[in-house]
Amino acid sequence: MKKLFLFVLLAGTLLFAQNKKASKIVVSPGEFDFGKIVEGTVVTKDFEIKNAGNDTLIIDRVRASCGCTAARPDKDILLPGEKTTLKVSFNSANRSGKQKKHIYVFSNDPLFGEFRFTFYADIVSDNKDESILLNKPQLKLERNSYDFGKAFEGEKLKLSLSFKNTGKDVLEIKDVKTSCGCTVASLSSKKLIPGQNGKLDIEFDTSDRQGKMARTITLFSNDPKDPEQTITLFVNILERNS
């Protein structure tokens, strides 16, 4: 019986090997450790997804092991050898101690249709540093994500989001970066006094693009607690009928 089982297993393996057209998902790094972070801090990490197979890789969805994480790939269809970026954010608010979280990527990979990778963090409290931060600038975004829903190819989608300096010193936005040239972001002001509001105007050009997409806008500031904050934009671009 054991020999028969080994024969069937070997035959199945050889049969799969003969299937020359197959996608293969590879995520790098497979594990990541944020190390020690102060409770309340939001940390982010870009993971690379690659199609190491010889057929098109289709990413169906991404799921996090808890509500404290958020992830979405820049592209969900990868040709052989093509890569994309998956940004993972972890909010340590109201958590303490060592954390182990998983991200699951569901795709048409015949061997790893549910691919899992892991990140770690050790959340500590620092009351001394927290009291010092009270007298510093603090960037507060209106939201960290927005879904445009469905749009036709060629549309220019516009969005205005507010942000505020909730700290006690002058807030300075040092830079604004977008994940692709299809997104333009402009600020009403790069410096805000304590309590002042600002506006971020965003334009998303859907020309020559189709399918579900996610793009990011990252603000870099002198907020000592959270100097790099990201807004993720989602859209499902439909083909325009001629």
List the main descriptive attributes of the protein structure presented here.
10% helix; Immunoglobulin-like; mainly beta; five-stranded mixed sheet; single chain; 242 residues
Outline the fold blueprint:
Elements (H helix, E strand, L loop, with lengths): L1 H17 L6 E4 L2 E8 L3 E10 L5 E8 L4 E5 L3 E2 L4 E9 L5 E11 L6 E11 L2 H7 L5 E3 L3 E8 L3 E10 L5 E8 L4 E5 L3 E2 L4 E9 L5 E11 L6 E11 L4
Parallel strand pairs: 2-9, 11-18
Antiparallel strand pairs: 1-3, 3-7, 4-6, 4-8, 5-7, 8-9, 10-12, 12-16, 13-15, 13-17, 14-16, 17-18
Protein architecture, described:
The protein has helices at 2-18, 127-133, and strands at 25-28, 31-38, 42-51, 57-64, 69-73, 77-78, 83-91, 97-107, 114-124, 139-141, 145-152, 156-165, 171-178, 183-187, 191-192, 197-205, 211-221, 228-238. It is mainly beta and 242 residues long. It has two domains: 21-127, Immunoglobulins (Immunoglobulin-like, Sandwich); 135-238, Immunoglobulin-like. The strands form four sheets. The chain has a five-stranded mixed sheet, with no helix packed on it. A five-stranded mixed sheet has the order 11-18-17-13-15, with no helix packed on it. A four-stranded antiparallel sheet has the order 1-3-7-5, with no helix packed on it. A hairpin with a 6-residue loop joins strand 8 and strand 9 (114-124). The longest helix is centred in the first third of the chain and has 17 residues, at 2-18. The protein is flat, with a radius of gyration of 22 Å. The protein starts with a helix and ends with a strand.
